[in-house]
Amino acid sequence: MDQTMVRQILGLSDLLEVKSALVIEPHPDDNEVGAGATVKEWLDRKVRVVYLTVTDGRCGTEDPRVSGEEMIETRRRERQEVNRLLGVQESYNLGFEDGGNWSEYQLMAVLVPLIRQFRPELLMTVDPWTPYESHPDHVKTGKACTAALISAKNGVAFKGQGDPHTVPQVAFYGTAYPNTFIDVTSTWDVKIQALLAHHSQFQEDPASALYLDFLSAEAERLFRDHAEHRDDGSGRMEAFKVLAQLQLHFFPDAIRS
Ligand SMILES: [Zn+2]
After folding, report:
1. CA of 128 to the centre of ligand 1 (A)
2. What separation in Å is there between the alpha carbon of 46 and the centre of ligand 1?
3. 209, 219 Cβ separation under 8 angstroms
4. Listed residues: CB within 5 A of ion ligand 1
5. Distance 36 CA to ligand 1 centre (A)
């Protein structure tokens, strides 16, 4: 069964048509790297967007002279500035240690009541199944998010921690298996401004200019390959793997969806 048919049968909204989205990042900047322009599209459309940042971001420097506390504070301020720039009004840091020895289960246990509280129509996070993804925080975050979706809808699991809620679909950024392409030509510049406002990550590291060039070139390639209206051939897209919650368990064909 192809993805369009699965979505039609389940009555799922297109990505930009959802009313609310919970967007969960391992570190304070991942949401913008993976989906900043799409998030801006949502906010312009008055979609309720709630950000959760899993870790404190203390490892956001490789300079041993910078203390963990200093880095945490820097990244907290940068997250606030970027939220103002994009218009994100609800944003919370869960305080897990960046690169720390926490488990996927511990994070899931925190996420289940939050999902039941915010009751989003879509959850967006990093794709933990992208081959060669080696950062444990990214792998644990993506997997904890999808595991949390399965428990959040189950009235027996985490009983007494909020009313069960089914999140109908999930969207992964940073994916190797994209099936959904969003035209973000009009919000791309804001995404780049947001990334630059994560000053410690994108202005202090000399390699970061190259990374921003790579992101832009990739967005232009996605547009050339996937845009329906290519009259002048220029534009930018962000790519996602979008799955129905149904496809997150005992559904091997999800990889081809
Ligand atoms: Zn990250």
Report:
1. 11
2. 27
3. no
4. 26-27, 30
5. 14
Q: Ligand 1 centroid to 138 CA: how many Å?
A: 6
CA of 167 to the centre of ligand 1 (A): 24
Question: What residues have CB less than 8 Å from 110, skipping those under 6 apart?
Answer: 94
Rounded mean pLDDT for each run of 10 residues along the chain, 257 residues in total: 84 96 98 98 98 97 94 98 98 98 98 98 98 98 98 97 98 97 98 97 89 96 89 89 96 92
Q: For residue 134, is it left (φ>0), alpha (ψ between -120 and 50) or beta?
A: alpha
Q: What are the extents of the domains in the chain?
A: 3-249
- Correct CATH for 3-249 of 1.20.1440.230, 3.40.630.40, 3.10.580.10, 3.40.50.10320: 3.40.50.10320
Residue 124 contacts residue 24 (beta carbons within 8 Å): yes
Local structure of 98: helix, strand or coil: coil
Q: From the CA of 156, how far away is ligand 1's center (Å)?
A: 33
Q: What whole-number distance in Å separates Cα of residue 188 and Cα of residue 182?
A: 11
Under a CB-based contact definition with an 8 Å cutoff, are residues 198 and 152 in contact?
Answer: no
Token pair, residue 152, equals 């959040």
State the pTM of this model: 0.97
Distance CA 74, CA 78 (A): 6
Using CB atoms within 10 A of its CB, is residue 97 exposed (0-12), middle (13-18) or buried (19+)? middle
Please, are residues 78 and 38 in contact by the beta-carbon 8 Å criterion?
no
